[in-house]
Amino acid sequence: MSGYAWWRLNNLNEMKRYSLSTETNIAQYWLHRLLEPAVLFSGIAVMALGVIWATTLNLANREQVSAERTAAALAMDIADTYEAQIVRALREIDTTLKLVLYSLDGKSAPSVLDDLRARGMLPPEVLFTVNVTDSLGNVLASTEDLDTAQQGVATHDYYRFAQQTEGMVVGMPRFDQESNDWELFFSRRAQGRNEGAAIIVTVSVHAGYFVSSYEPDVLGEQGVLALVGNDGIFRVRRTGTAISANRKVDYETMVAVSRDVETPAKLTVNAWDEILRYTVARELFEFPLAIVVGLSEAERLAAVKELEQTYLWRAMLASLLLLIIVILLGRLSWKLQRAQFHNMEQRVAHAQRVEYLAFHDSLTGLPNRAFFSQLLTQGMNHSRRYTQQFALLFLDLDRFKMINDSLGHDAGDELLQEMGRRLNGAVRESDVVARLGGDEFVVLLPKIEAIRQAEIVAEKVLSTVSAPFTLAGQELHITVSIGVALFPKDGEDEQSLLKSADIAMYYAKEKGKNNVQFSSKALNADSLERFALESNLRSALQNQEFKVYYQSKQDMNGRVTGMEALLRWQHPDLGLVAPMEFIPMAEENGLIIPIGRWVLKTACWQNVAWQNEGFPELSMGVNLSARQFLDKGLLDDIKTALHETGMAPELLELEITESMVMYDVEQTVQILKKIKKMGVRVAIDDFGTGYSSLSRLKDFPLDSIKIDGSFIYDTIDCTGNQKLTEAIIEIGRTLSLTVIAEGVETLEQLEYLRTISCDQFQGFYANKPLPPEEFAVAMREIYLAPQARL
Amino acid sequence: MSTRLMVNMWGLLFSLLAGSAGAEVVVVVSAQNPTKTLSHAELGDIYLGRLSRFPDGTAVVPVDQRETSPAYTEFYRYHLEKTPTQIKAHWSKLIFTGRGQPPARVANDTAMANAIAVSSRAIGYLDSTIIDERLRVVAIE
Fold this sequence. Notes:
A: rod-shaped, B: alpha/beta
């Protein structure tokens, strides 16, 4: 299809307008993009995942921090309590030591102890043992049975320390094999006795006593409760149920962790068992000892860690669920979107198809009349603006109707399609080819500078179209008649421009078809009459404006053998219109069929009427036009006419022109045979003008040939025509055909024909075509005096 | 259950051995004390400092023996089903946390008999062979 320059220009402008408005809507565009399901769902999913994980991690972190704080605070609480308990216990022990030393005051040690015990002033024996030793380390008295305690203690560290030290001494722990327990020793010497050795009082304590406040519920299995000397040696240490002692650690390092009471518990790895604990180590104010409290980090945070795990699992599960939901939703929406898109695409395609159909000819795919009208208007606007001119070519296929009728509509359609292709091939890309309907095409040539340009294109079209077609197995030569109108010279609006081109095209038809005619003012004026005539022709049959005239055929003796029916049009304004003026028009627009049918019937009816009046059996010649001859209803029409009028078939003689016969020999023979079968006679009219192949003539089932009047007219002066006439008569005789000379006007001509043995003649010499009433009168005259004029 | 059974079996074995020697640790009160029976639980509670009154409501003063005495181990093992270490741990905690004081101790069965005889509130334990008219054996059920 050709491009449409103005159409494109227009679209371009529209697009520019749209693009301008798009710029202002960038924000909306992005908003729209964000709301697209894929982006939206992904965004929501990412946000939800973010919220889930942020919440989870935050919660876990808070739980952890809270647990850590709790653990540290708990360690501090325990340490506070433990410190108070230890200090009280140590003071009680020291008080006991002082009490015993005070009570001794030169008395016997066993009696003092017994006395104190009886008074209930000694600590409970179940845990505490009080010993009194002399300056040599011998045990003087004990709350335990003497036999077990009676050994010397001079070598024991607490003894030696006590000898050297004022105040209470804390000895090293000792493991008692017998009770399988650690024992702690606290001793004090008597004050201000001698410069040398003094009496020493010792309280030995079951070591477990100092760590008995270990609550497994609070301190767990891995907690620690301990008493460590400032020498770095553990006096007692408990973890779970295990009680141990005597291990050395770096005292300074340990105590440095929390020398201040306010210092919170520190998370450290304890050196003695490599366990991470919230540890508090606090030096005692009055005693050379420090307490150690530790809470196992693993135990304290186990619950929290478990909780964190639970949170993480939940978060993972939630994430997974979310992802699945989002994926499902996304898939669903994608499907929906695709369905919508598909639906929309179909709608658009349908709309495009509808629009295409509305603006294009379905047969050839060319722009149709409506679209062409639009293009033409745009073209005119464009040309006006730039003061250009353009050409409009109006094309009409010659004899298309005949082809359509004879070869069928399918072949006609095929021909039109081929026409469309050829036209498109013959013009430039920027030219417009459109089909207005039927066999009418138009070509629009924009930006024509000289008429010559349009002429070149038109000639190219003529030559392209005239290349042979192969249609329904037959090779055809098709031609077009082209009318050219120029804008703005030949019309400033669509209608007048089209009309000018149309008139020029008709003129081309009249000029013998297959040619190009340019529109002009004279042509337009001339054509106005023609248009009036054509429109009148359509109503002429109904208005009974047609008349049949008759001209007699006579033999050489002047005897009437028959007549020829001749059509006349009695136009209400123009008077009698010659057949030459309206028959081609009727042929062109198809009116010839009903008109021909009417003539045939009228002629038959007239013939029968005359015979009924007493006329002899005269033959009746009726002309068939080319279109009529090829019409499928011809045979039926003849039958109907004969049947309805009662005309004898052998009296009817159908006259066809020589050119019609030669157009399609095979088909003509077929039709003629059928006509002959009905008993109707056939004559070839205008013989000698159609360049017919004489050799084929014998194939036609003919009865007569009629020598064209132009030969007879010249026979007297022209020897060439004489020879031809003689030859035709010779052929007729050879083929046993009746030879009739037409157009005989003079006696001279008649005499000549008589010498060359022509069978019959027809012409003004006998009588001119007459209306039926006059013809009847003339006939009677002839019959009354047959020899009078010869 | 099984530990209790084991303890009972050990107790049985021991009593058989002790029985051959004619000795058995019994719980005693003063003859003036009306208490005739105590449950194992009541006895245990009294000696572990959890119960301070007899069933009739009068105050109770438990008297203990030294660890070195044979009756001590026998009493705690048989009547309280505790080892000396457990008893130490128990009193360690109570004393250390200031929530109780253990029973006063006497040196031997004789001292025990004398201590119980003079106090109607006292309760003690001793070898059955030492029992005299001042004392009453409390049946432990």
